Every structure is written in structure tokens, then in C-alpha cells.
Amino acid sequence: MAIEAEKIEALIKEAFPTAEVRIDDLAGDGAHYAASVVAEEFKGLNRVKQHQLVYKALKGKMDGPSGELHALALTTKAPD
User: Fold this and answer.
1) Partners of 32 in the beta sheet?
2) By the 8 A CB rule, do 9 and 69 touch?
3) How far apart are CA 7 and CA 12, in angstroms?
4) Residue 26's domain is classified under what CATH number?
5) Which of 8-12, 26-30, 62-66 has the lowest mean pLDDT?
6) pTM for this structure?
7) What digits encode the pLDDT tens for the residues 25-50?
8) Residue 30 in contact with residue 78, Cβ under 8 Å?
9) Are 16 and 59 in contact (CB under 8 A)?
10) Which of 67, 60, 1, 70 is nearest to 34 (CA)?
């Protein structure tokens, strides 16, 4: 299964309305992406917690072998 970059961005933006989100398709297969997320909601949180929140925002799209999204390289931070 594959997922479109726009769907990933929409899910992240739904959870983090202030976020600046950039999604790159790493393999051209709709299953391997890199995401950069800069969001006010990350202030005061360490990177592990930030990543956990992004994974939660994906609403199970990465869950197990049947997930639509196989790999997501994440870069997260709060705005400067």
C-alpha cells in the first residue's frame, strides 16, 4: 500500500495547526518519506516526545506490515 505526501502533510497539520511541514518522497514509491515538522506545539518537548506526537498524528498509517507508510525519517523542532 502507498500513501500520498499530501495525506501525510494533512494528518500532521490536523494535529499541529501551527506547523511548517515539508514532506519528501525518498524512493518514489509512496511508502518511504522524510518529513520536517516545525511546530509551536513542540516547545519544551524533547525530540523523542516530538516524534511520538507526530507518529500519533499519523493515526496508525505506520502500524505493522499492513501500514500504508513503511518508513518516515523525521526531523522535528520548535520554532526559534
Assistant:
1) 71
2) no
3) 9
4) 3.30.300.90
5) 62-66
6) 0.89
7) 998 888 889 999 999 999 999 999 99
8) no
9) no
10) 70
Rounded distance between C-alpha atoms, residue 34 and residue 22, angstroms? 8
| The amino acid at 60 | G
Please report, as a single letter, which amino acid is at residue 74: L
Domain encompassing residue 30: 5-77
Question: Total structural domains in the chain?
Answer: 1
- Cell 499541529 maps to which residue? 16
Phi and psi, residue 49, nearest 5°: -65, -40
| CA–CA gap between residue 63 and residue 46 (Å, rounded) | 23
**Whether pLDDT at 20 is above 70:** yes
Grid coordinates belonging to 8:
501525510
Pick from 67, 54, 63, 65: nearest CA to 11: 54
The residue written with cell numbers 518508513 in the block is 71
